[in-house]
Amino acid sequence: MTILISNTQLQIIYQHAEATYPEECCGILLGKIDERTKTVIEVIPTINVWEPAESIDPLEASSELAKTKTSRYAISPQDILQAQKSGRDRDLNIIGFFHSHPDYPATPSICDRDLAWHVYSYPIVSVVNGKVNEMKSWVLDDKSLFQLEEIQQVK
Questions:
Q1: 6, 1, 20, 4: which is closest to 99 by C-alpha?
Q2: Residue 25 and residue 46: Cα distance in Å, rounded?
Q3: How far apart (Å, rounded) are the C-alpha atoms in residues 155 and 150?
Q4: Which residues touch 110 (CB under 8 Å, ≥6 apart)?
Q5: Residue 20 belongs to what H/E stretch?
Q6: Lowest-pLDDT range of 15-19, 25-29, 141-145
Q7: How much is the pTM?
Q8: Is the pLDDT of residue 25 over 60?
Q9: What does the pLDDT look like over 84-123, one tens digit per residue?
Q10: Distance, CA of 107 to CA of 139 (rounded, Å)
Q11: Three-state DSSP string of 43-67
Q12: Cα angle, residue 63 at apex, residues 109 and 46 outer, rounded to 5°
């Protein structure tokens, strides 16, 4: 599968990633899917609403739930619902969710894999010292393992 995205859309993602650094940015990709490609029509930057879970157990303080926005992201259900409604009115679907990895490679974490769904693309932007370093897109295979997805820039 290949994801088609314009330079303008990439710039929206990159600007969002740099503006939210050192926290993870996140957002929604609206577009169309056919047998071989996903075409991005709209990039919707969203607010990272991740909130660490509170626990009275000190052993859980280092757990995944205690992580902060510098290493985790969440998109509000309201933002997802609004994107779905907006897309439906234009015959578009949510085709992916993007986020950044501050000072970390553009490779999925275990948490990214555990929270991912098979049908979507997951572009990840590596931001090092506040500047975009690289972006890679990932999809889950039938064994729930991330596979690299080709990114093709279009005009």
A1: 20
A2: 8
A3: 16
A4: none
A5: helix 7-20
A6: 141-145
A7: 0.92
A8: yes
A9: 999 999 999 999 999 999 999 999 999 999 999 999 999 9
A10: 11
A11: EEEECCCCCCCCCCCHHHHHCHHHC
A12: 55
- Of 76, 75, 51, the closest CA to residue 65 belongs to 51
Angle at 54 between CA 51 and CA 60, to 5 degrees: 110
Can you name the residues that pair with 137 across neighbouring β-strands? 123, 149
In the chain the first and final C-alpha atoms are separated, in Å, by 19
* CA–CA gap between residue 154 and residue 146 (Å, rounded): 24
Structure tokens that stand for 63 in this block: 């757990």
Is the N-terminal amide bond of 22 cis, ω within 30° of 0?
A: yes
